[in-house]
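Help! Submission page says 'invalid entity' but I think these are all valid:
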Amino acid sequence: MRRAVFLAVMLSCCAACGDNTPTSPSSTSPNATERFDDIISVRESKFYPFSVGSNGTTTINLASLSPLDRPGVVNATMEIGWGKAIKDDSGTVVGCDLAKVIQTTPALTAQLTDALAPSSDYCANIADVGGLRQSVNFSIRISHP
Amino acid sequence: MVLSVALMIAACGSDNTPTTPSNTSTTTSENWSSVLAPGGASTRSFTVNSTGTIAVTLTVAGATVGLGVGLPRTSGGGCRLGVTVNAAPGTTPQISTQADAGQYCVQVYDLGTITDPVGFALKIDHP
């Protein structure tokens, strides 16, 4: 009898021990990266519309600012930002209502990081705030869900 | 019997200390050698798999040249540079910069000083 009780207790302990059922990873969709490459002139601003597919982190990176006529980097301070796209009656994006801007120089890591919801259409914006002496190429990376 | 049960309970999953995730990012080294023409630029692309440091070491060059890292152009060849230096060959990285995951390029370009093609070699270390 004592042996049976002992075995029952041991079995119940073993059964209670260590739930090794693997946890399913939460669903996280990989971010897509869009490129906004163009030329910007002195005192000019340009925007690029984009949309996000789900809630998550969107990053914007001014990665390159380079001369038009030779290899190299222009280390000018630029203003970059994001906002909500302004559309006309036909749905064409005609402007960018800026929500956040920063001044920065080119780097290979994101300068702007924000949580954007998929309920709106967005835009990335770049503007010369006095740092440019001539037109330059620029490259912006937008990474979003 | 009491002792046996006590030992089993003690052994039973009470260590809830979270395990520190191991650092799974590894550094990849790529070697590249080519020839730079007068007035020209040579570009090679590479992929960074996670945020980390890109280090570029120009190990061989027949002259001081421009050395840069940037994003590959979306159309055509070439490189939209984000970081540049004027580099002479050496054993330590002339460029060491933080970068997010993504596609990148390294470019070697003439600073306007070479009159004949020069060979060069470099090493790219990246996550």
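Support: the input was valid. A stray whitespace character was the problem, and the output above is from the cleaned input. Chain B touches chain A at residues 1, 4-5, 8-9, 11-13, 41, 51, 54, 66, 68-71, 73-74, 79-84, 97-100, 102, 104, 107, 109 (CB under 8 Å).
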